[in-house]
Write a structure and sequence with these properties.
Blueprint lengths: L1 E4 L6 H8 L4 H9 L17 E4 L2 H8 L23 E14 L2 E19 L2 E13 L4 H12 L3 E5 L5 E6 L1 H5 L1 H11 L3 H15 L1 H8 L3 H6 L12 E7 L2 E9 L7 E8 L5 E10 L5 E12 L2 E11 L2
Antiparallel strand pairs: 1-2, 3-4, 3-13, 4-5, 5-6, 6-7, 8-9, 9-10, 10-11, 11-12, 12-13
Helix pairs in contact: 1-2, 4-7, 6-7, 7-8
Length: 317
């Protein structure tokens, strides 16, 4: 037996996780069987009080009972990905905030994203992605140019593995072949000097497939819609890495409600101590593993500036 003094914010669950005790109920029972009536645990833990904790051998024996709630099949779903003949349109909303010296600036971008399954060959799925119907709070010529540039590339070709994890983003050969016409059209629509500089950079990114793939993998919709949310669950948890700005964080997933039927909801948060904060909620169709909607929030501080992003997409049809 070990004596632990309860810290502020600690719970039976958090302490059990630290000592590798699978079922927190055994920690409560173990303590209550050994403590005085004054220290009896009813609901919440009280900071500063003593907690009797089992030793390594006792923990091992408790775990052999194999009765931890997280071991239930409902909390460890096998999420397959069956996108054959799939075609859906999503409404996408991105709000970005920049906070510095107590002053906050924000901007919201909305658009529709159409995702269409094309084929499955070997260990890869291929999709077309179309982005349209942009609205942007900036109402500037450069913002209009950026949105028109994106539209001019439709559709993007997305390749994933068999579980829906993003592998590659590219353009149709026809788009690359006709890029001079696309470029001329953009220059006609936006003839000023700064637009010309933007279009030149745009051309470099488009015609360099490696650079294009790298940049598109950071696109908020692409990286979050085609995130590896269907990774295997073990002990009620699933993990995957995600890039936030220039940081890579590990995202932890749990099932929100064990009583799911046709849809399953996954709750997400950042797994380890990180400079970035992350919280997410995905809704998937249980049978196909296709994402219906998602709501994500993440922030990161760089050089005294806090950047926050609220990102969501929801199925329209």
């Amino acid at each position: 037996m070990i004596i632990h003094f309860i810290l502020s914010g600690e719970t039976l669950e958090s302490i059990s996780e630290k000592i590798h005790l699978e079922n927190p109920k055994h920690l409560k029972e173990y303590h209550n069987q050994r403590c005085s009536a004054h220290d009896y645990i009813h609901e919440n833990l009280i900071p500063g009080k003593r907690l009797f904790v089992p030793n390594i051998e006792e923990i091992r024996n408790f775990n052999l009972l194999n009765d931890a709630p997280f071991k239930s099949p409902e909390l460890n779903p096998v999420l397959n990905f069956e996108p054959k003949n799939f075609s859906k349109i999503y409404f996408v909303r991105i709000t970005e905030e920049k906070e510095k010296d107590g002053e906050t600036k924000d901007n919201t971008l909305t658009y529709t994203a159409s995702v269409k399954w094309i084929e499955t060959i070997g260990n890869q799925h291929t999709f077309y992605l179309y982005k349209n119907n942009f609205t942007d709070g900036q109402s500037s010529k450069m913002a209009d140019l950026a949105m028109e540039s994106i539209r001019s590339l439709n559709p993007l070709i997305i390749k994933t593995d068999l579980k829906g994890k993003l592998m590659n983003v590219s353009l149709k050969e026809e788009t690359i072949k006709n890029f001079n016409k696309i470029k001329e059209r953009l220059l006609d629509l936006f003839p000023d000097q700064y637009a010309g500089m933007y279009i030149k950079e745009f051309e470099i990114a488009v015609l360099n497939q490696e650079l294009f793939n790298e940049r598109m993998k950071d696109d908020p919709f692409i990286k979050n819609y085609f995130a590896p949310v269907r990774n295997s669950f073990t002990n009620g948890k699933s993990f995957y890495d995600q890039k936030i700005e220039d940081k890579v964080i590990t995202v932890q997933q749990k099932v929100e409600d064990v009583n799911y039927t046709s849809e399953i909801v996954l709750l997400q948060h950042v797994f380890s101590i990180s400079e970035a904060d992350f919280n997410g909620k995905y809704t998937l169709y249980t049978q196909t593993g296709i994402v219906k909607k998602a709501d994500l929030y993440y922030d990161i501080s760089l050089y005294g500036v806090k950047y926050s992003t609220f990102f969501s997409f929801d199925e329209l049809s």
